[in-house]
Specification:
Layout (H helix, E strand, L loop, with lengths): L3 E5 L4 H12 L3 E6 L7 H11 L5 E5 L5 H11 L3 E4 L8 H4 L1 H21 L4 E7 L23 H20 L3 E6 L2 E2 L8 H10 L3 E4 L6 E2 L2 E2 H14 L3 E6 L5 E2 H12 L4 E4 L15 H7 L7 H19 L1
Parallel strand pairs: 1-2, 1-4, 2-3, 4-5, 5-6, 6-11, 7-10, 8-13
Antiparallel strand pairs: 9-12
Helix pairs in contact: 1-2, 1-8, 3-5, 5-6, 7-9, 9-11
Length: 321
């Protein structure tokens, strides 16, 4: 096996951490990202600055919707495995800008699949999402549950990814593994996600919006546990599977707010709001299949995870002042 891995979305939160971990393991990594302005590009560039310090890292500013540019990467680099983390993220933004999701999450995804099959790639590991479970009432969410009632376009595109990947595995014997990520957080995290927003606003003595009047539960999963799960998926390279990657522990949102307050040593001003369209009240991962088939075992509890995130947040934002 060659040690060349293509990571799409390499300047993103998960893509950055995965690329750095693979580089530390001695892999050659070609990262691509379109560095869009969905959130602060300075954060994306700061992540890239770290990756660019590695001799075994190459980067291309490429959009996966651009088939020809993507094809040139496959021709030059000839990856053994492809990890597709590039996607238009965000449940709520999909209501405002649906075409961004069709372009990146559907057209871009098929481009990746087509090139993987034509270049004989050994395996494709791709990001799905816990949002595919939609309004499912049965908890915890199992990969055996039906997921045909998505309540956001983002969720629908991620379910579509799983279906399209299945067809490519069936038709072309392309190995594909879909990973349903559950509320990933940690250092270098996304500023559009609740934990970062809360830290920002509490620090600035601004009110935080807490939806569903605070009656929300999320399976918060620390970034290191997610990266471990992705690397196990790369190693196993199953012919066609989907796995949950979560912490298997659903936290009350208000408990997480309290932890952020504690680590910032500052009290939140809370503005309670009704639930937003596309949001679900609870997420909770059943990880039995991931434990058995991948050897996946999350180890970071929410207390340590929030402490690590806030520690990084303070350092990063000090540099910006």
């Amino acid at each position: 096996m060659n040690k060349r891995i293509l990571v799409t979305g390499a300047a993103g939160f998960i893509g950055f951490h995965l690329s750095r971990s693979l580089l530390d393991d001695g892999f050659e990594v070609y990262g691509i990202d379109n560095i869009n302005d969905y959130y602060d590009v300075n954060l994306k560039n700061a992540r890239l600055d770290i990756l660019n310090n590695y001799r075994n890292f190459k980067f291309g500013c490429i959009d996966i919707e651009n088939f020809d540019e993507l094809k040139s990467v496959f021709e030059k680099f000839n990856p053994c495995k492809v990890i597709n983390l590039a996607a238009q993220a965000g449940v709520r933004y999909s209501i405002e800008n649906p075409f961004a999701y069709v372009g990146s999450n559907l057209v871009g995804f098929v481009n990746i699949l087509e090139l993987c099959r034509h270049f004989g790639t050994e395996g494709l590991i791709y990001a799905s999402s816990s949002s595919v479970y939609g309004g499912n009432q049965k908890l915890p969410f199992s990969v055996d549950d039906r997921v045909d009632k998505p309540i956001s376009l983002y969720a629908a595109t991620k379910k579509a990814n799983e279906l399209i990947a299945y067809s490519y595995s069936h038709l072309y014997d392309l190995h594909t593994t879909g990973l349903r990520f559950f509320t990933v957080y940690g250092p270098w995290g996304r500023p559009d996600m609740a934990m970062y927003i809360f830290a920002d606003k509490i620090s600035a003595s601004k009110a935080i919006d807490v939806y569903n009047n605070g009656k929300m539960q999320r399976d918060f999963t620390y970034i290191d546990d997610i990266i471990n799960g992705v690397k196990l998926s790369i190693e196993k390279n199953y012919s066609c599977e989907v796995f949950n990657l979560g912490n298997s522990n659903s936290e009350n949102l208000m408990d997480v707010v309290s932890l952020i307050e504690k680590n910032l040593n500052k009290q939140a001003i809370i503005n309670y709001c009704p639930i937003q369209p596309g949001d679900v009240e609870k997420t909770f991962a059943d990880i039995e299949k991931s434990e058995q088939m991948l050897g996946y075992k999350p180890t970071t509890n929410i207390n340590i995870g929030v402490q690590e995130f806030i520690s990084w947040y303070k350092k990063y934002n000090e540099k910006l002042l």
